[in-house]
Specification:
seven-stranded mixed β-sheet; globular; 27% helix; 239 residues; Chitobiase, domain 2; three-stranded antiparallel β-sheet; alpha/beta
């Protein structure tokens, strides 16, 4: 990412996930961005009270924030961690950004949807159900993949995307999964040079910079605790 500006790591709001599961209603992103979630009439008072009082997030995202912080050696004072609930739109317009989590836990991700091909969409009315959408499937790819929390194969999905920021002069890195294991798989892929280097070579521009790229990953949890990761789809700038 360009080093001439701040980089903001946005940690997902797991409290938002819990609120939506309890009320079985998705919080519109406009309400979240304007911090009007507490005004929702369709949510019980107890659920809202818990949401306001608690700031939960996934440990995998915290681990990634710590890892990226250690690697920000060129400008460590320009690397900042922000909770999704505290972010402002202007923050995304004037900085590089790393968004962890899917739209269910990090609604800011939806602002980048039109730039992406792979999406993980959650159904608030079907607990644990996600639909992974592929807007423009290629040969050998499916247009959609379904994830269920009780899948006996213990299969999950994750996405990684590197694209331009909302202000078009910064860069954005987005990653998230259908479960914490899916997010962890994305982190493992992102921090493994053996996995990531071939993607970066394919995405490298003629001037040496890294262009946009996207990955859709499938991860299967094994009995020994390891995770098998397979690339289901890849997009790179102009290819």
């Amino acid at each position: 990412m360009p080093k001439d500006r701040d980089t903001i790591f946005v940690i997902p709001d797991t409290g938002l996930v819990l609120l939506q599961l309890e009320t079985e209603h998705e919080v519109p992103r406009e309400e979240y961005f304007s911090r009007r979630v507490a005004d929702r009439a369709d949510a019980g008072g107890a659920a809202l009270a818990r949401y306001r009082a608690r700031r939960y997030t996934g440990i995998s995202s915290v681990q990634l924030a710590a890892e990226l912080g250690k690697r920000a050696t060129a400008a460590p004072d320009r690397f900042h961690v922000r909770y999704a609930r505290d972010l402002m739109l202007d923050d995304l317009k004037h900085a590089n950004v790393v968004l962890a989590g899917v739209a269910q836990s990090n609604p800011w991700r939806e602002l980048f949807r039109h730039q992406l091909n792979f999406h993980i969409d959650w159904d608030a009315h079907a607990s644990g159900k996600f639909l992974i959408r592929n807007d423009h499937p290629r040969a050998g790819e499916q247009a959609s993949y379904e994830f269920l929390i009780d899948d006996p194969v213990k299969r999950g999905f994750a996405t990684i995307a590197y694209t331009h920021g909302l202000g078009h002069d910064g860069r954005a890195l987005l990653l998230g999964g259908t479960t914490s294991a899916g997010t962890q798989a994305a982190i493992e892929f992102l921090t493994s040079s053996a996995d990531l280097d071939p993607v970066l070579r394919r995405a490298r521009r003629s001037d040496g910079s890294i262009g946009d790229f996207e990955l859709l990953l499938e991860c299967v949890l094994q009995a020994n605790g390891s995770t098998d990761i397979r690339v289901l789809g890849m997009r790179t700038e102009g290819k």
